[in-house]
Amino acid sequence: MRYLYTVRPPQGTTDPIGYAIGIAAGLGVAAIVVYNLVHVDNQPARVCEDFDLQTVCPPETWLRIMHQAPIEMGAA
After folding, report:
1. DSSP state of 39
2. Rounded distance, CA 8 to CA 17, Å?
3. Over the range 36-71, which residues count as b (16 or more CB within 10 Å of their CB) and which as e?
4. Are 50 and 37 in contact (CB under 8 A)?
5. Gap between the Cα atoms of 20 and 67, Å rounded
6. pLDDT at 36 (0 to 100)
7. Which H helix or E strand runs over 53?
8. pLDDT, tens only, 36-64
9. Fewer CB atoms inside 10 Å of the end CB: C or N, the chain?
């Protein structure tokens, strides 16, 4: 893993988590690193829709949710 960018949303941003997720999506990153879960409003699932989430304290990793492709049914 390689450090890419530190995001600090502008003051007054109504959705700082969404702001950071948007930047991460634009950069094509694999993981978002935060100090602790407070930085994501104790909602790791929100980040894990599209990214892995890593916290520094305590050091933990939440893996992104793997969406399965729909299974096509048909005649063989």
Report:
1. G
2. 10
3. ebebbeeebeebbeebbbebeeeeeebeeeeeeeee
4. no
5. 22
6. 96
7. strand 52-55
8. 999 999 999 999 999 999 999 999 999 99
9. C
What single-letter amino acid sits at 25?
A
pLDDT above 70 (res 9): yes
Asked if residue 51 lies in contact with residue 32, where contact means CB atoms within 8 angstroms, the answer is: yes
User: pTM for this structure?
Assistant: 0.79
* Helix (H), strand (E) at residue 33: strand 31-34
Q: What's the rounded Cα separation, in Å, for the pair 39 and 70?
A: 34
- CA proximity to 8, closest of 28, 35, 31, 29: 35
The 3-state DSSP class for residue 61 equals: strand
Q: Stretch 11-24: mean pLDDT, rounded? A: 94
* Tokens read off for 47: 């980040």
